[in-house]
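User: We ran a pulldown and think these components assemble together. Before we commit to crystallization trials, I'd like a predicted model of the whole complex to look at. Sequences follow.
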Amino acid sequence: MKHFFASLTAVTWKDLAVEWRSREMLSAMLIFALLVLFIFNFALELDAVTRANVTAGVLWVTFTFAGTLGLNRSMAMEKDRGCLDGLLLAPVDRVAIYCGKALANLLLMLVVAAIVLPVYSILYNINLFQPGLVLVIVLGSIGYTAVGTLLASMAVQARTRDILLPILLFPVVLPLLVAAVKSSSALLQGYPLGESSGWINLLIVYDLIFIAVSLMVFDYVIEE
Amino acid sequence: MMIAARNLVKRFGAKTVLRKLNFEVNAGEFVALLGPNGAGKTTLLRILASLSRPTMGEVTIAGFRLPHQAAAVRLRLGVVSHQPLLYGDLTAEENLRFYGRLYGIPNPGQRIDEVLALIGLGRRRRDLVRTFSRGMQQRLSIGRAILHDPDVLLLDEPHTGLDQDACEMLDTVLRRVAAMNRTVVMTSHDLARADALASRFDILSAGVICASSTRGSLPAGGLLAFYKSALAETVK
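Assistant: Here's a predicted model for the assembly, 460 residues in total across the polymer chains.
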C-alpha cells in the first residue's frame, strides 16, 4: 500500500513538475477558456435576468472544452516520447498510474476554474464566489477528470486522438454536465443548497460510479 | 535459464508476426538478436518486456511467468528502446528520481549518483533532458533501465540515430553493464556493433529463430557470413 501511494504521488508530482516547466497544458486550457468567455460575452448581449439563467451553461461549456484540451495533452505527453511504455514497465499497480494522472488533471482543471471564475465575475458582473458553487465545480471536475483520464488513455493509442477524445468523452459526461449545470444554475439564482441536493447527489453518485469503473478497467484499457 | 519463451505466436489481425518461436537465454549471456526489418525482433522484445501479450505461447523470465507474475518480472527487467522513455522537461536527476520512486528503490540518492557516474552524466545531472544530445539521452535511458539493478536488460536497437562517437560511448556503457554479469538481449541492424558486444548471435527471420551461434562457433567468414547464410537458408 505504501508503494501504491508513493507511485501515485510520484506520477502526480511528475505531471505537475513537467507542466510547471513547459506550461503547455495550462496555457492552452486558460487561453481557450478565456477566449470562450469573451466570445460568449460579445455573442450574447444579455440582460441581467437572462445572464443569471445562462451563466451556469456558459461556465460548464468553458470548463468542458478547456478540460478536453488538457486531458489530450496529458496523455499525448506520455505517448510522444515513449514515456507511456516507461510507466507501464514499472512494477507498480497500474491503478496508481491512473490515480496519479487523474489527480494531476484534476488539480490543473481546478486551477483553470480558479482563474476563470473571477474573470467571468468581472465580465458578466455576477458574483460567482459561493461555497455551494465551488462544491459543484469540485464534484463536477472530479467526475470529468476521472472519466476523461480513462478515455484519454484509450484515445492516445489512436492516430486520430485529438478528434477521438471529445467523441468518446462528451456522450459519457452528459449526465454529469446536466447535473452540474442544473445545480449551478439553481445556486446562482439564489436557491439554497438543499434545493439542488438531488442534482448534487447525482454528481456524487456519478463520481463514485465512474471512479470505480475507471479503477477496474484502466489496466485493460492501457494494454496494447 | 534466465529467459525462456516457448511456442510464441503473435498475430496482429490477419498478419502473423511470430510463428511458434522458441528463445532461451542463460544468465549472464549477451545475445544479439539480428534480422531484417519486419522479422519480429521488436515484437519479441515487447512480449519479453511484458508490454505486449502473445497470442499463444508462454514466457518465463527469472523464473516468473508472464503475464500472471508481470510485476515480479518488471522488477527484474530493464528496457531500452529507440525512444528515450524520458521526460524532456525534467532534469536527468529528476527523471531518475521519478523512476526510482516507481521502482521503490531504497536510498535513491546514492543509487542515482552511482548510475550517473557509470553513464558519465554526473556533471549534467541538473540539466533538462531536452537540452541533451541524442547520444546523451540514450545513455541516460540506459541509466534509467539499470537504476533498479535488473537481472535482465532488453535493448531495442539502442544505436539508432546515434553518431559514431555517441555509439562508441554507448558501447562503453553497455560493456560495463554486461561486465556486471547481467543478461542482455539486444536487437540490432548493425552487425559490426553486435559483433563487438555480444557473446551469442540469434538470427530472427519470418517470425522464427532460424539460426543461433555463440562467438566461438561462428563460421570462418565471421558474423556477416553466418548472418547471410542463415537468411539464405530461410529464403530456400
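The longest strand of chain B covers residues 15-25. That may be worth checking against your pulldown data before setting up trials.

User: Thanks, that helps.
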